[in-house]
Amino acid sequence: MKEAATAGDVCTRNVVVAPTSLSVDEAARLMRERHVGCVVVVEQGDGGRLPAGILTDRDIVTAVVAKDVDPKSLRVGDIMSANVAAVREHDTLYDVLSTMRSRGVRRLPVLGAHGVLAGILSQDDVLSAIAGQLQALAAVQVRERRQEAALRS
């Protein structure tokens, strides 16, 4: 029997990242160019990129646009969420959902060995994975009906 899907199975490996020193207007431009709703703020560690925070499009709207602050005057490190929730590659989707629910977040960095950034997992990624499993379950029901009909005819 196949093991439960994990964060590492479902996450996006090509993560858009930014340093804390990047200006907020440059971060917004990066998000637009890459068609993403967040950047993972990273610091360079011995083993690779270590998540220091996360900056979402909503953070920019609430901390900059709504307050009429010049985005060129702020750095990503000024408005990012520093206490970032994250999951490990081997965590199951159940663990991922639990973390999303308890922390009230829709995106989670996925950590590999030594806490190094390995990917990012969004609520949409989890929904797609679960939808695929539900389709597989529905296919079982259809097949069962066909097999029963064949036996009865």
Question: How would you characterize this protein structure?
Answer:
By secondary structure, the chain is an alpha/beta fold. The chain has one domain: CBS-domain. It is about 45% helix and about 20% strand. The protein contains 6 helices and 6 strands; from the N terminus they run αβαββααβαββα. It has a 3-stranded mixed β-sheet. Strand 5 (about 105-110) and strand 6 (about 115-120) form a beta hairpin. It is elongated and about 75 Å long. The mean pLDDT is about 90.
Short description:
This protein is an alpha/beta fold and 153 residues long. It is built from 6 helices and 6 strands, in the order H-E-H-E-E-H-H-E-H-E-E-H. The protein has one domain (16-152): CBS-domain (Roll), CATH 3.10.580.
